[in-house]
Amino acid sequence: MKFPKSYTYGLAVMMLTTGLLTACGANDSNSSNGGNGSTETAGNSADGTETVKLKVYAQHFDDDTSKPFDYAVEELKKVMPNVEIELDPAVMDGYQKLKTYAATGNMPDIYFTDWSTLQTFAKSKNVEVLDDYEVTNSFKANMTSGTESRLVAPDGHVYAFPDTGIEFQLLYYNKSIFEKVGIATPIKTVDELAAAATKLKEAGYVPMSIFAKEKWIPRAFYAGFVTREDSNGFGTLDDANVKELPQAFITAAEQVKKLQEAGLFDVNATNTNYDQASALFYQEKAAMFVNGQWEIYSSQEKLGDKVDWMYWPAKDEATYEASKLFINGAGSPQGYAVSPSSKNKEIAVQVASILAQKSAEYRYSQLGSPIVASKTDKPIAGSVPAMMDRLAKEVLPNAQAYAGALNNTKISTSLEDNTQSLLINNFTVEQFVSELNRVLKKEHP
Amino acid sequence: MNKYLGNKLAITLFLLPALLVYSVILIYPVLQTGFRSFYDWDGLSEATFTGLANYKELFADPLLTTSLRNGLIFAAVLAFFQIGLGTILALVCADERIRGRKLLKTAYFIPVVLSVTVVCQLWIAVYDPTNGLINRLFDILHIPYQQNWLTSPTHSIIAIAFVNAWQFMGYQFALLYAGVKSIPEQYFEAATIDGCSKWQAHRHVTLPLMRETYKFCFTIAITSGLGAFVQMLIMTSGGPGTSNYTLTYMIYRYAFMESEYGYACAVSVLLVAISLLATVIINKVFDRKEV
Amino acid sequence: MQKLNRFVLQIPLWLYFIVSIYPLFWMISYSLKNNEEIFVTNPFGLPTHFRFENYVTAWSQFNIPRYFLNSFIVSTISTAVIIILALMFAFAVARMVWRFRGAMRTYMIVGMFMPLQVIMVPLAILVRDFHLTNTYGALIIPYVAIGLPFSTMVFYGYMKSIPREVEEAACMDGANIFRLFIQVIVPMVMPAIATVAIFQYLNNWNEFTLAYILITDEMMKTLPLGLLFFQGTYSTDWGGMGAVMTMASLPMVILYLFFSEQVERAMTVGSAVKG
User: Which first-to-last residue range defines the signal peptide (chain A) (predicted)?
Assistant: First the structure.
């Protein structure tokens, strides 16, 4: 994503003028904020052009979050030298602080957030609708195929510019442990996986380490089985006509329960965090691991050629072959959004789009990740891990379907709670079904 | 005398500063919470008045049963462990003949000084089913009582309550110790001269004189048990499932995870009401014993 | 024989002593380990290799002296204000004679039961409206308000147990009500003041939630917020967190060791006055 030079120049001039205009015309709704208002139009810089300061609230606390962002900011300077980014670093708090900013009328010009927060902000007019902006069209035109659902919300509007593509989870396994214990690969059915679990356990391994203290992971593990039965995945539950848990979901629950009873998980699974679970896998005490595709980098680094990923198994081989290219990840909007109260809204929209595209560029060119929302003409620097290569060649071009998004937060949190419970003894499939039926009945009257 | 202690100007001057800060910063948000509990509101958008709908929904919410049950268990564990052990240790440490009592007294307070995060991390390790200290200890002693301390939906709340009880026992201990110390020595001496044993003297002299302290300790233990939250958040994230939920955890979930601020406000009102009720009951119980 | 008996009786006291100070040792060793040792290989013992780099990382991640200073200022001022206001309030309610003191006492308790999670947003709006955002006041004033119910309750309990004769004597002597408060009542509740001071100081020092929500300026952040620098998207640097927690807690432990001596002395003085 490189701008031609002349275009860059024109863009800068254009934005400068709009910047001036909006700065003059903006009504000062944030004046009661004292010195902490969101935007400031600072004085003139040396060459006589006016600098625009934008406050950006984005995750910036480790390599995964700070490197793409810093890269994007550097690249932004080349395209829009008059824009100064003031970073307000966010941490993972469920967007609690961002919501407080919204409640106190103290929104940053640009912020990074997820779909559930965007929904609330759309209702309360704390997010700018980007549908009619010029940049939105050019952003859309430059997206990688199949990622539109990251940009365009189910209600048809555009609220934020995404950087990553549709992410999904993989089952990682240690090839050398599988060989040692004598487990044939690929595992295609749930029964085979259950048998493997028993074998591994007898051989003294933890069959699968899972950081189920974070509830999204048992939910994702379960989603994998649902997708084998229903390509729409959790998206099916968003349909207001679904008043009872469909068979696909019951089958998947029975499968997870069966695996739990076969000893696939550690007894402490629901109280294991990422660091404990990954340590078990990397020290080769656990034979399998479940996490998003982003785990490819560290697993390749720690285990080299010993590690690979496999498709989620299904009830029988025929189903497996028919459905293995149904992707369990669902695309829901996420990314850099703009506050309607920003004094330099026009510029902020431009900047948000560039931040998203440039951070995608970093992920693609520096990390070799094909899971990005926008295309870039920068080549991949360095080598791509074999597992990522396999993903890019075997899965992404052949993907038959992506799961639908589940937008209802109540059903979604109930799935998290109850899939986590499936991993412990004494919690039955019947309990699972009746809990979800109760929530479905309430949400889809 | 009453005129001396009824000086209106003095009363106003004494009350005003505290009252002002407290009312504006704490009571005003509390009132707002009460007001918002009658609305369907996500915390940001326009709110719609829905009357008692939130409360009706609340009393049908299965999470409420779990949360109340856990709150009561938590409160019971705190009251029993902290005040029981706190009393014994306070009386022992007040006894001049115990050697090293200063050292003991200081040590018992140490867990309070540490942050909750540190203590929770420690106990997560202690409770670990395979590497944890407790299960290993049972193993060494050949007691076949291996437990999954933090993953049992029915028992983990007790394990977690115990962590809180243990960490803040020092609080109650310090309060009780100060209580024991503030009783004039002569009372106790008089009783022992009358032929009471040491423990009898405590039972009949020291403890009754500490009624106000106990009233306070019970109030703190029980209400902080009902409103407990952080330990569950750190140690089990409220799980497995929702089995470790408490009222405050419910509030956290509805206000921040599900954007149902109005509903969260209704839960808060219930929590305040229950805590007040508990305070009133504790006061009644202790005042009756005065007779 | 009796000596032996007493010795045996004291064993549980010393066992509990170990259980109480072990976390201190554990925290310090934790801060010198990496994730692998913390979770899998060696959760309880001394670190096999002392990783002082955790402290170096912590030091390089954020401005520790500044955070430290902020914590110190906020905790000290809040604690002092809490004690003064709570003493005055408790005195008026516990010792003075007027009609609505029972109701006033209940009123002061209500705020203690309100979970922070739900008043956080209205509080943030108040802080903005008072133009306190990113000042020490943004933390001090809420801390004072939150500390008041507990402190007044403690003081109330102690003041209630002071015999009536004390006031009668002061009245006879012709001391006015303010002198009675400052010169007679306050010294008598010294043990309580010392206890409350420790409690409140610790609470304010360790407070995380409000500081996280209300402070955005790097120059105003308090020590517990340093923990945020060790959280990763997927993985967390627990050793680094341990280093921050040790740096935050050790001064408190030392302060407490020093202060507990004072408390003890205050108690002796307190009971001497009373006797």
Answer: 1-25
Contacts 24+ apart (CB under 8 A), C258-263: C259/C194, C259/C197, C259/C198, C260/B105, C260/B106, C260/B109, C260/C198, C262/C194, C263/B178, C263/C191, C263/C194, C263/C195, C263/C198
Mutate to test the interface with C, among A32, A275, A298 (most CBs of C within 10 A): A275
pLDDT in tens, A55-77: 999 988 777 888 999 999 999 99
Residue B24 Cα, gap to closest chain A Cα (Å): 17
Task: Find which of A1-5, A55-59, B2-6 is predicted with most confidence, using mean pLDDT.
Answer: A55-59
ipTM here: 0.85
CA distance C121 to chain A (A): 6
Residues A84 and A60 in one domain: yes
DSSP A295-338: GHHHHHHHHGGGEEEEPPPBSSHHHHHHHTTEEEEE----EEEE
Both A83 and A178 in a single domain? no
DSSP-based three-state secondary structure for A206: strand
Closest CA to A391 of A320, A321, A310, A331: A310
- Whole-angstrom CA distances from A2 to A6, A142, A169, B88 are 12, 12, 31, 75
CB within 8 Å: C233 and A92: yes
Contact indicator for A244, A324 with CB cutoff of 8 Å: no
How far apart, in whole angstroms, are the C-alpha atoms of residue A408 and residue A445?
A: 14
Report pLDDT digits (tens) over C33-59.
888 787 777 778 888 888 888 888 888
Q: Which amino acid is at A277?
A: A
Q: How far is B154 from chain A (nearest CA, A)?
A: 11
Domains and CATH numbers, chain C: 63-273 (1.10.3720.10)
Residue A401 lies in a domain: no
For chain B, which residues make up each domain, given as ranges?
A: 62-286
pLDDT of residue A132: 92
Radius of gyration of chain C (CA): 23
| pLDDT of res. A250 | 96
Domain count, chain A: 2
Residue A265 phi, psi dihedral angles, 5° rounding: -105, 155
Quote the radius of gyration of chain A (alpha carbons, Å): 24
Backbone angles phi and psi of C60, in degrees to 5: -85, -20
Q: How far apart are CA B235 and CA B248, in angstroms?
A: 15
Looking at residue B45, the DSSP 8-state letter turns out to be S
Q: Does A155 touch chain C (CB under 8 A)?
A: no
Q: Which CATH superfamily is domain B62-286 in?
A: MetI-like (1.10.3720.10)
Cα–Cα distance for residue pair B10/C88, rounded to 1 Å: 10
State which residues form the domain around A67. 11-166+332-386
Which two structure tokens, joined as six digits, stand for C231? 């959280």
Q: Identify whether residues A180 and A37 lie together within a single domain.
A: no
